[in-house]
Specification:
alpha+beta; 7-stranded antiparallel β-sheet; 19 strands; 36% helix; binds 6-diazenyl-5-OXO-L-norleucine
Length: 588
């Protein structure tokens, strides 16, 4: 509650400033500055435990200022795609943990007439990448190189993705969508509790990179809650993107600075890699659960396929009568999860490089075969010859938007780890991803310690690494829009989206209750159920153990599902996940 009211206070401070400068602009500021906006109607700084309500447009994101900027765009007559672009650029400033221009992600769009599409802007491997690039001279796997080096950086996709979304489906001028982020970075914003704590935690990891320390602290001293912070290099980069579109990032000064940092630190990305990067529009994955429609992200994300596969398996069980998070419920979900994650590891990768059997994996009769293997009171052990998958951190971000016409956008994007590679491009002020860590480590290198070495997701020139991101849109059985959701959380993402989907459909929970409920996770190997702290009482734990499940209950919390549920009368009900204290739903 305390953080909620603080969040509201910071939002209010921003409103009182009319989105204007917190102090006189630095002399290097771009000349072009919009007039301050009228405060307008902000109904939804989420006084938990109620969801935010809006009759027209609604934005739910990880930071109140980004939600506010998205809502401003809707009130100016922009559509949900415009708002998604503006919110995404704003998060690159106020939520540097995962908001980005140096990373990549996925956007699912559903139009008011029921058509849907997706924009894929996943990072890709540089042309010099190869499957053994993370082995040292002695042929040993070098985890540091794989996850925390200039060689861990993939060619960023976010700016190209937003530009493609705008070109195909935007309605306001591009510059209007980037400008609010330019202003936030250039003139500053007030440090929130969530960001201050997060930056304080990451500061030691930034120490190797002077530009990172310079950008995200006061000369090595952490920012304090209430400080006004400015990111002037980032503001100049965003201004180039505002003025030159994708070329403001993939060519010219920004590209030159990025490549100079690659050369300095032994990275592989060249000007040619940047020039060749393209985002893609791809057909969504479509599925159904008890008549509700599911619209999800296709490869190179595994999210849509695995979500639909699990829902297909679970449709044949009476989950509602088992009860939410009871031992039988957890058992049946865990059995579905283990099977879908096995298929994910075996079959799913960049579709431009591998033949992914999408139709088979999302087919209801295939799910029926898998369902028949599931025993009601006994876990199926994951085969010892199977492969283990490593744990991931919880630093990606998702936002959900519905505009006044019912156009819905579900976007998840990331730098991979929190603050990605931790490398800020000197002079350009933005963080680079470490997404190459989502490729498998090396051919055949499969260990019980958590590495996988299967073929489909090995690094190759210009290949996209496999993702778990699962931006999703749900439809009611009558074909109308029902909900928009997604989350960070590495491999837990797909299971979090699954559980919130079931909370909404099977248990008819309100949106805030649905995103707040404790979650659990099984990913095939390691063969165990992980659960959030306090998810199960002793009796449930004993029951699950009797069924043969191993439990790992050490985890705190994971995932932040920022969601919108449509009420039957069309009211947009928005809920930021209370696991993220800076998040907010803003609507009108
Ligand atoms: O694409 C993926 O699946 C991961 N790179 C996402 C990383 C992530 O969610 C980390 N923390 N939330």
């Amino acid at each position: 509650m305390r953080f909620r009211s603080l969040t509201a206070t910071f939002a209010l401070l921003f409103l009182l400033q009319g989105c204007g400068p917190a102090a006189p602009p630095p002399s290097s500021a771009p000349a072009r500055v919009d007039a301050p906006q009228p405060a307008g109607v902000v109904e939804a700084l989420v006084p938990a435990p109620a969801p935010a309500r809006a009759d027209d447009g609604m934005v739910v994101s990880a930071h109140v200022l980004a939600s506010r900027i998205g809502d401003d765009i809707l009130r100016k007559g922009g559509n949900a795609v415009d708002a998604a672009i503006a919110t995404g650029f704003a998060l690159a400033v106020v939520y540097p943990t995962a908001g980005n221009i140096g990373g990549g992600g996925f956007m699912v769009v559903r139009f008011p007439d029921g058509r849907a599409t997706t924009i894929e802007f996943r990072e890709k491997a540089p042309m010099a990448a190869h499957p053994r690039m993370w082995l040292d001279s002695a042929g040993e796997y070098d985890r540091q190189r794989h996850h925390f080096s200039h060689m861990a950086v993939g060619v960023p996709g976010t700016v190209a993705g937003f530009a493609l979304a705008h070109e195909r489906y935007g309605s306001l001028p591009w510059a209007d969508l980037v400008e609010p982020a330019v202003r936030l970075a250039t003139y500053g914003f007030i440090m929130t509790p969530g960001l201050a704590a997060s930056l304080q935690g990451i500061l030691p990891a930034f120490a190797r990179y002077p530009a990172s320390v310079q950008a995200y602290s006061r000369g090595g001293v952490p920012y304090q809650v209430g400080d006004t912070v400015r990111f002037t290099d980032l503001g100049r980069t965003l201004a180039r993107i505002r003025d030159h579109g994708r070329e403001g990032f993939y060519a010219g000064e920004t590209a030159r600075l990025l490549v100079a940092e690659m050369e300095r630190g032994g990275g592989l990305i060249t000007l040619e890699d940047l020039r060749r990067y393209r985002a893609n529009e791809r057909e969504p994955i479509r599925g159904s659960y008890r008549g509700y429609g599911v619209i999800g992200m296709p490869p190179p994300s595994s999210g849509g396929i695995a979500l639909v596969e699990m829902l297909n398996i679970l449709e044949g069980f009476d989950l509602a009568s088992m009860g939410h998070n009871t031992a039988p419920y957890v058992h049946h979900l865990a059995e579905a999860m283990r099977r879908a994650y096995r298929d994910r590891a075996a079959f799913v990768a960049d579709p431009d490089f591998e033949d992914v059997p999408v139709a088979r994996l999302t087919d209801k009769s295939y799910a029926a075969e898998l369902r028949r293997e599931i025993r009601p009171a006994e876990a199926t052990p994951s085969s010892p010859s199977d492969i283990a998958v490593p744990a991931e951190s919880d630093q990606t971000t998702h936002y959900s938007i519905v505009d006044g016409d019912g156009l819905a956008v579900s976007t998840t994007y990331t730098l991979e780890y929190g603050y990605g590679s931790r490398i800020v491009v000197p002079g350009a002020g933005f963080l680079l991803n470490n997404e190459m860590g989502d490729f498998n480590a090396a051919p055949g290198l499969t260990t019980t310690g958590g590495l996988i070495g299967t073929e489909p997701n090995l690094a190759e020139p210009e290949k996209r690494m496999l993702s778990s991101m699962t931006p999703t849109i749900l439809e009611r059985p009558d074909g109308s829009l029902f909900a928009v959701l997604g989350t960070p959380g590495g491999r837990t993402i797909i299971n979090s989206v699954l559980q919130v989907t079931l909370n909404l459909i099977e248990f008819d929970m309100g949106v805030l209750e649905a995103v707040s409920a404790p979650r659990f996770h099984h990913q095939w190997l390691p063969d165990e159920i992980r659960a959030e702290e306090g998810a199960f009482d002793d009796a449930r734990i004993a029951d699950l153990e009797r069924r043969g499940h191993r439990l790992d209950l050490r985890d705190g919390r994971w995932g932040t599902v920022h969601a919108i549920r449509m009420a039957p009368d069309g009211t947009r009900l928005g809920a930021p996940d209370p696991r993220n204290t800076d998040a907010a739903a803003v609507g009108h």
